[in-house]
Amino acid sequence: MFKPCMVIVASFLLISCAQAQSDDHILTACQQWQSVNMAQYAKNNVKQYSGRIVKISDGDTVQIQDTHGQKHRVRLAFIDAPEMRQAAGKESFKNLQNMLSRQKTVQVQVTDIDQYQRQVAIVWQGDVDVNASQLAQGLAWHYDSIAKKQQQVDAYRYYQCLHQQAQKQRVGLWRNHQAQAPWAFRQSERAQ
Fold first, then answer.
1. Which of left, alpha, beta for 76 (phi over 0: left; psi -120 to 50: alpha)?
2. Which value, in Å, is the radius of gyration of the alpha carbons in the chain?
3. Is residue 118 among the annotated active site residues?
4. Structure letter (DSSP) for residue 118
5. Which of the following is catalytic: 83, 85, 186, 189?
6. Which residues pair with 52 in a beta bridge?
7. Where do the structural domains in the chain lie, given as residue ranges?
8. How far, rounded to the nearest angstrom, does the alpha carbon of residue 6 sit from its chain's CA centroid?
9. Which region is the signal sequence (predicted)?
10. Whose CB among 137, 142, 147, 175 lies 3.0–4.6 Å from 163's, allowing a Cys bridge?
11. Helices (H) then strands (E): counts for the chain
12. Into which CATH architecture does domain 22-172 fall?
């Protein structure tokens, strides 16, 4: 009984370490386009504020309570994570949940308000761009059609590079050869 458990734990640790090394490699490969200035990531800078995570709904939607106590529904800008009913949807959600500590402050750069009245924003925890991390870990698509219009050129290249490197290295959802983009999944569900 002891040996099979040790094998399972050792396998999990090896996979986790390999995943972390792959994520670091992807971030390093794309670093030439990364900007350290949050305001340079989007063409529109509606507003910025600090807050803490109150709820995580899926791999690209959170609720944030700002420092004045107001709650905001936030859609992560320029990415589209798999839906919860879709392959890798729960994995994307859990990754975001693990990444975002409810105890730590996040910085929010609102770039737009969407049709559901959610703030579309880039979320930072410390110096980590949460949106970009979802791409680097292969748990979201770069929302190319929107990003081309709304993202600054270097930020667009950075996110596109992260997306392509994750896909090339078959990280996260890219392990599935038939991964379906969330917008195609939603469209097929509406058609049924």
1. beta
2. 17
3. yes
4. P
5. 83
6. 65, 105
7. 22-172
8. 32
9. 1-20
10. 142
11. 6, 8
12. Beta Barrel (2.40)
pLDDT (tens, 9 = 90+) of the chain, 192 residues, equals 434 433 333 333 333 444 445 567 777 778 776 765 666 678 888 899 999 999 999 999 999 999 999 999 999 999 999 999 999 999 999 999 999 977 789 999 999 999 999 999 999 999 899 999 999 999 999 999 999 999 988 899 999 999 999 999 999 999 998 889 999 999 988 888
Catalytic residue among 118, 157, 186, 189: 118
Q: Is 83 a catalytic residue?
A: yes
Catalytic entry in 52, 73, 75, 157:
75
Closest CA to 81 of 131, 152, 15, 147: 131
Helix (H) or strand (E) holding 58: strand 47-58
Question: What value, to the nearest 5°, has the Cα angle with vertex 51 and ends 48 and 52?
Answer: 145
